Amino acid sequence: xxxxxxxxxxxxxxxxxxxxxxxxxxxxxxxxxxxxxxxxxxxxxxxxxxxxxxxxxxxxxxxxxxxxxxxxxxxxxxxxxxxxxxxxxxxxxxxxxxxxxxxxxxxxxxxxxxxxxxxxxxxxxxxxxxxxxxxxxxxxxxxxxxxxxxxxxxxxxxxxxxxxxxxxxxxxxxxxxxxxxxxxxxxxxxxxxxxxxxxxxxxxx
Amino acid sequence: xxxxxxxxxxxxxxxxxxxxxxxxxxxxxxxxxxxxxxxxxxxxxxxxxxxxxxxxxxxxxxxxxxxxxxxxxxxxxxxxxxxxxxxxxxxxxxxxxxxxxxxxxxxxxxxxxxxxxxxxxxxxxxxxxxxxxxxxxxxxxxxxxxxxxxxxxxxxxxxxxxxxxxxxxxxxxxxxxxxxxxxxxxxxxxxxxxxxxxxxxxxxx
Lengths: 205, 205
Prior knowledge:
Glutaredoxin; homodimer; 50% helix
């Protein structure tokens, strides 16, 4: 196997690295330099026709894309410790919280990134900055909503166990900060959760 | 258990209904009338603070949101026939294709729906029709890309077995059509796949 990876701040490769660090799995890695547009080069597009990182090359020579799909593949091969839930109920709630983090936070943060950030203006000259600004408000609202959901005092996003949902939200929050959207000052439950997740050694992966 | 459901054209509840039909599972159901904004009423918001359908009430009284999370819960309880993949490899590729259908097709189609459709203008008065128009092109591009991916002649989106990925893409394509974005005329592989998936009795669920 071989993982095609990229460094910070790319949030999707980071999800996989944190997951692997939590599981204690080591995979041979090749860096794809996005700043040099290596992910859009024909050689890489043959591995993932969407030109996105990460990609996992399997031992049979096929290529697997999508960070969560890559993590699920490792989860099936190495079930312990479980990061996608321990039983049917927990698996469902991990899935629910991953998706809530993606649709509520990652989605609008991505809209800001492509429409209202000077660093993407070169590859995306037709930005819609007003729509980006609207989505900044949606991201702030999502963070406030998450803060309310975490107010019940649970330690981790999907319940009593650290899971892939925490990894997805951590990378989403940190990516939002990279696009100049930090957590609201008064979001104390979300901030406490973020501190807890960031304190794990895996967060530096 | 009880499923909070809504009729066509709502695409997310439809995913769950098709899944249940394929599995032969029957669940007591209560309809949430979105046209009457019942999904935003306090009674329903207490079940899902995002005010979205579907929701599954579990036997222990907790509420599970997100259509894929609901289907995964049923999959863990009723593994046969497998719709999320038969082994580690197939599970990973089902996940990959679900996500590609969601991020490439559902995402931009949703941007069109909220920004450039007269039927959402009432609840979303600050539409960005130019951005909606941009996303119409992105949807068309995604359909052309999917057509190319299906050109290898495989019967189903994730490979040799019908799966949840087919359900997600079917509901996405049909939702896009509802927002006036049909498959390109020359997308013959995608159209053949769509005909094949639509011919299954579950597609009428």
